[in-house]
Specification:
heterodimer; A: alpha+beta; four-stranded antiparallel β-sheet; B: 382 residues; alpha+beta; Butyryl-Coa Dehydrogenase, subunit A, domain 1; Butyryl-CoA Dehydrogenase, subunit A, domain 2; Butyryl-CoA Dehydrogenase, subunit A, domain 3; 3 domains; seven-stranded mixed β-sheet; two-stranded antiparallel ribbon; 11 helices; 9 strands; globular
């Protein structure tokens, strides 16, 4: 099929099916009837994952053709395609799950019938994620799960949790982990909302008491969960590097507009600060575009791993400059003070990106080790059975 | 402007230039050349000219390669990485760019073939003692010019921070005339021209002050401003490329060093204090490369956003290079505090290029002026 044919096909299809939306939700852990209906149409027409193989719900398109589809959808503002690039659970399953599990879960994920949450961090395993202590024990054709997870977005509504947990305590920590798609709606799973520094409660604590997961929901093999987790984390980090949440009232996203509204756009020092900060965002966009182009040209790109670190700096710098722009108004908060509320919210929420998905410091370790080839720090717990590892 | 080469051809150009520089312009050679009076490597320059680099931007009908900003930027990355001592930026980019943009066919035919062959070194005087590279800062005046009567002009006044004027055969000078800024060709050894070498902090770079006292000059083209702007755009793309290339080279050298330097029984590159500095600098180096290449691409394609992309590259690359070169010394420790170690050569270049052709503050201000004009009419949010 030529690029022209493909462009015509996708445009014709969109013209026939896409109608201006009410509310379509683009979130991993939320959905609604309209979202489901649209994503089902997209799935059935095989636009959800254009680059995936034909036998797995895709069209086997190359990168250039996939871009044509994504651009056509973007032009009319329709979501649902390009999930081969950002749908974290679906991509993780495609990469590592059994055919049976792929067939069971992927269609629902692409159609937004199924929502998921991430069961990674624990109170005693944050940056040291391989030190998780939630355990899964085999019981016939199922596993019994006990333990606790934290920082779980969407746990109150999710159908499945992507769970990393310990299945072998007698081997070093990375070698005893397994990865499951755990059904969330069961008696053994208790979800408690966690209030964040922003005052919101998007995160939860999740407690497992003899929760059950079928053995068929094991992904990547027993005790081989660490590698699966790396795939999933890479997707999460790359999406955190490309996008971040804006303000709640939309009153403080644009620094220039904010400075103009505050009557401070002629302050020469502030102008320098704003230019510096706007530039950071531009540079990240340029880096991401170059990373994409280099991948398409078959050159391996070191830039991909930098996005999240860059975004973290962008968000904190923007927050600092916004605060400088509004000055004393930042003493205020609440619904009646949309500008101050946005500025203060964004200042606090910047930590979502600089801590979540791996702290900046962990990201820098990863970049320096995997991209630059610098040695790891010696680790006291790397080569001993996990049950002997100190905790606290 | 366009992009005349394929990706493969561009890779080949960069590789060929990189190989020549690795062989002919290693650290030892750079140090030897920077101690000479002229400060340029004539042998290297002949070699680069034979490859078509001296005439990279010169249209083919004047004996050049007829290439554009994208190829310029890639070659500049290599030249900047090697700290090569050549009149590339002064003669091949600024002067050739200015002449081409002047649309003065006679001047182009007279000067460009020699520039392309590397046998003529030309340079451009655009700023006065204040060194802001803004038109208001031109303090040279032209006398005896009238509209349409371009011959028989005389220049008086001072230009400063002129690259390689001491070795140049031809000076192209911006001067105030009764009808705005004009461009003039002046013989560098002619009457009324006094060239005084400035003592430069970056010894791989030569700068001069030129005093004109009723110096005979030939006017080039009509209004000077559009040609000056066009030449500065190219020169800033070239500068950004050199900065990105220099930043990447000193960064790579530093990372390699941290893998071999042993303290506390292990390579210092294994300590998170060093690793985190390295990761931050990688982001700076990649961002500089992205900015330089985007500016080149946008200029080559005549995009509306080209000026904005050039402003961005100008300050982003300058600041990244300065930060990387400075931090590289700290990461090396004592060894890089010695004259023998090359790190300070990069820091000197980074500092010099932060002000040559305009400061980061200036380019940031220009960048903000452009984006705030857009955000005001609601067209594009940054």
């Amino acid at each position: 099929m030529t690029n022209e044919d493909l462009r015509r096909e996708v445009n014709d299809w969109l013209a026939a099916h896409w109608r201006a939306p009410g509310t379509i939700i683009q979130s991993m852990w939320e959905t609604n009837a309209e979202t489901r209906a649209w994503h089902t149409k997209v799935f059935e027409a095989r636009w959800s994952v254009p680059s995936w193989p034909v036998e797995w719900f895709g069209r086997g398109l190359d990168d250039e053709q996939t871009n044509i589809v994504i651009e056509a959808f973007a032009q009319v503002g329709a979501p649902g395609t390009g999930q081969d690039r950002f749908n974290l659970p679906a991509n993780t399953l495609l990469a590592a799950a059994s055919d049976e599990l792929k067939l069971t879960l992927i269609p629902g994920l692409l159609k937004k019938d199924i929502t998921t949450c991430l069961l990674y961090s624990e109170p005693s395993a944050g940056s040291d994620l391989a030190g998780v202590r939630t355990r899964a024990e085999r019981d016939g054709d199922r596993f019994i799960v006990n333990g606790q997870k934290v920082w779980t977005s969407g746990a109150t509504v999710a159908d499945y949790g992507m769970l990393i947990c310990r299945t072998d305590w007698d081997v070093p920590k990375h070698s005893g982990l397994s990865f499951f798609f755990l059904p969330m709606k069961q008696a053994g799973v208790e979800v408690r909302p966690l209030r964040q520094i922003t005052g919101e409660a998007h995160f939860n604590e999740v407690f497992f008491t003899d929760a059950v997961v079928p053995a068929s929901h094991l992904v990547g093999g027993l005790n081989r969960g660490w590698r699966v987790l790396q795939t999933a984390l890479a997707y999460e980090r790359s999406s955190m590097g490309a996008r971040a949440r804006g303000s709640r009232h939309g009153a403080a996203d644009d620094l220039v507009a904010l400075a103009r509204a505050a009557g401070r756009l002629d302050d020469p020092l502030l102008r320098q600060d704003i230019a510096r900060t706007v530039a950071l965002r531009r540079l990240n966009t340029l880096n991401n575009a170059r990373a994409k182009a280099e991948l398409e040209q078959g050159t391996s790109s070191s830039i991909m791993s930098l996005g999240k670190l860059a975004m973290s700096r962008i968000l904190h710098e923007e927050a600092r400059v916004r605060t400088a722009i509004i000055g004393v108004e930042s003493l205020l908060a609440g619904e009646t003070q949309p500008t101050a509320d946005d500025v203060n919210f964004l200042a606090l929420n910047a930590y979502f990106t600089s801590i979540g998905g791996g702290t900046d410091q962990i990201q820098k370790n990863i970049i320096s080790e995997r991209v630059l080839g610098l040695p790891r720090e010696p680790e006291l717990d790397r080569n001993i059975p996990f049950k002997q590892v100190r905790s606290g | 402007m366009t992009i005349a080469t394929t990706l493969e051809e561009r890779r080949a150009i960069a590789e060929t230039v990189g190989k020549l520089l690795a062989e002919e312009s290693g650290e030892k050679r750079v140090r030897a050349v920077m101690e000479t009076r002229d400060g340029i490597d004539r042998e290297l320059w002949s070699g680069l000219a034979r490859m078509g680099i001296a005439g990279l931007l010169v249209p083919s009908r004047f004996g050049g390669a007829g290439l554009g900003p994208v190829e310029l930027e890639l070659v500049a990355e290599e030249i900047g990485a090697a700290l090569a001592c050549t009149p590339f930026l002064s003669s091949s980019v600024l002067a050739a760019g200015l002449l081409t943009a002047s649309q003065d066919e006679a001047a182009c035919a007279r000067l460009l073939p020699g520039i392309a062959a590397g046998t003529t070194i030309a340079t451009v005087a655009l700023t006065g003692e204040r060194g802001s590279w803004q038109p208001v800062d031109v303090t040279v005046r032209a006398e005896g010019t009238k509209d349409g009567a371009n011959d028989g002009a005389f220049l008086s006044g001072t230009a400063s921070y002129v690259m390689h004027a001491g070795v140049a055969d031809v000076l192209l000078v911006a001067a105030a005339t009764s009808d705005g800024l004009g461009l003039f060709e002046v013989a560098s050894h002619g009457a009324g021209v006094a060239i005084e070498a400035l003592p430069t902090f970056d010894r791989t770079l030569r700068l001069d002050r030129i005093a004109f006292a009723h110096a005979p000059a030939t006017r080039i083209g009509g209004a000077g401003r559009p040609a000056i702007d066009a030449a500065l755009r190219l020169a800033l793309v070239g500068r950004a490329g050199e900065q990105a290339g220099g930043a990447r080279r000193i960064f790579d050298m530093t990372v390699e060093y941290t893998k071999t330097r042993i303290q506390f029984g292990r390579p210092i590159g294994g300590f998170q204090a060093i690793k985190h500095m390295a990761a931050e600098l990688l982001l700076e180096a990649e961002s500089a490369t992205s900015a330089a290449r985007d500016a080149a691409l946008q200029l080559a394609q005549d995009h509306d956003g080209a000026d904005e992309a050039i402003d961005l590259a100008a300050f982003a690359c300058a600041d990244a290079f300065a930060k990387i070169a400075a931090t590289a010394i700290q990461m090396h420790g004592g060894i890089a505090f010695t004259w023998e170690h090359p790190a300070h050569l990069y820091l000197r270049r980074a500092r010099a290029y932060s002000y040559l052709l305009g400061s980061s503050d200036l380019h940031r201000e220009r960048f903000l002026t452009k984006i705030s004009a857009q955000s005001h009419d609601g067209s594009v949010a940054p």
